[in-house]
Amino acid sequence: MSPPAIRDQWYQAQAERQAIACWINCYLREFALPRGQADLDDRGHDAPGGLAHVGGRMLRMTFAEPGYALCIGIARSSRLGRCEFASPPYLKAPGDAWRCTDADATVRFLLERLAPECGFNGELHAQTMNSIEVARQLLARSLDAPLTGDALLDAEQGMLWGHAMHPTPKSREGLPLPLVLDASPEIRARVPLFWFRIDPRLFRGQGRDVRATLATVSGATDRYPCHPWEAQRLLAQPPLQAAIAAGWVEPLGPLGDALYPTSSVRTMYHPALDYFLKLSIHVRLTNCVRKNAWYELESAVALTRLLEPVWRDVTRQVPGFDVMVEPAATTLDFSAFSDDADALRELNEGFGMLYRENLSPLHRKRYRPQVAGALFTTDRDGHSVCRRMVEGLGGPYAPMALAWFQAYAARLLEGTWLAFFRHGVVLEPHLQNTVVGFDRGMPARVWVRDLEGTKLVEHHWPARRLDGLSERARASLGYSADRGWKRIAYCALVNNLAEAIFHLCGDDLALEHRMWQSIADLARGWQARHGRQPALQGLVDGDALPSKNNLRTRLFRRADRDADYTALPSPIGTQAPWVVAA
């Protein structure tokens, strides 16, 4: 077999291995463990013969229909039941022998077992296959892509695998695959935006005047961009065609400085700009089509203004914690050319753009910041990125890893908790929204971003405090205290810190236990300084943790805002229920 063919097989195998791990971990957490249909240390006499050589433990999942089962070797599992697998999966149907299977058959098997509840979701199967194909091609195209030396950019474009607890982490639907790949961050792409010359009467902005930034990128003062994926969609809209015919708009095509797509795919970065540019795309990434609803842009800009005193208080009390604000949003208004509300909304959203403050050159040089999602993951060869960083500090690994983790967790949690409990602000500090800065290799700064996803606890923020916001924007911001705590607990503890622990600890169960205990210690210390909070005391006492149901959300075709949670037994304490000693 030729070397290229061997490489192609390796890319496919790696992409399928990752997809199988995502699907089985999601199914395990959201269905099998809560229903008592999983054994993380199965010793059944009828185990697949192909697992005999693997050694170690075996996961067996059973189903409501008798006779069906899934087995797979486990390399290790966490206190939250998150697994790293050591073999392909084996499937069994009534009356049949075990069969070793690939990703396609595994996903079909699980979807069939779930069909009595939700019907067979062929759309989700197709999205999974799309995710595998995208991952395969990203692996192939990123192999020789050079690093830039800009730590933030290299991390933004280094999230090869994406969300570990999502069934379709690399699915990108809505456009031809070659077009999607050419502007994907994982291949370390540089992309010019698609520009239009516009009559200034079309321009609409909120917040800070950012037209100088657009001129810097395009080289002229009368130009406005969209994401290159959006251009043909927008050009097909009759109001834009009418504006072109009237001479108010001239399509210019791709030009100006090339920008770097970041981990969110549609947000663009350039080290010389004051802002990240968050553009609109009609492409489904994980749960959502990533278009910019104008009310969401309005609320993000309003929060930058409204919450300025909050951030001053939080950053004063938690040195090293900060928020990347979003002081401006822009779009184009074509109402002079049409009264078709749907077409005008399409154009408003397609041209909608949010401006997020970039980190200063001094901060980027001093702290060498990285996105948390690029740290708490594995590289293309399956090695932990953060573990390699800690090992580079020298000294005994376990105490160094614990100190490293505590430095990170303290800044992340204390700032997030203060914003929530004192000020009623619900941040969304998941892995992709958290940027970590370092001092001599130790976490020293944390920035949380994405005000579009930030919410306000309603009893802290009654309507009178939100004057000037449209009714739709106000409605998008309000959260109950309980809903806000679930969002924070999931993002900070389950999505973020649990993954940090998983990738820092390896199979060291004692170290994993100490890291979870250090989170309880942070909650005790926070209450000693700021006053008792039932939610934090519940964390100390071992209350369940909420885990967002990404698989359920896609299975039942729900909007992401309607995602529900699975209650995970607490990992804090002497013995988590799913821990099995090696």
UniProtKB/TrEMBL annotation:
Q: Do you know which Gene3D superfamilies this protein is assigned to?
A: 1.10.510.40, AcsD, thumb domain, helical bundle (1.10.150.640), AscD, thumb domain, four stranded beta-sheet (2.30.30.1240)
What is the similarity comment for this entry?
A: Belongs to the IucA/IucC family.
Indicate what this protein is called per its UniProt record: IucA/IucC family protein
Q: Tell me where in this chain the Aerobactin siderophore biosynthesis IucA/IucC N-terminal domain is found.
A: 152-376
Q: Which InterPro entries match?
A: Aerobactin_biosyn_IucA/IucC_N, IucA/IucC-like_C, LucA/IucC-like, PvsD/AcsD-like_thumb_beta, PvsD/AcsD-like_thumb_helix
Q: Which residues form the Aerobactin siderophore biosynthesis IucA/IucC-like C-terminal domain?
A: 403-562
Report which residue ranges the record marks as coiled coil.
none
Q: What Pfam families does this protein's entry cite?
A: FhuF, IucA_IucC
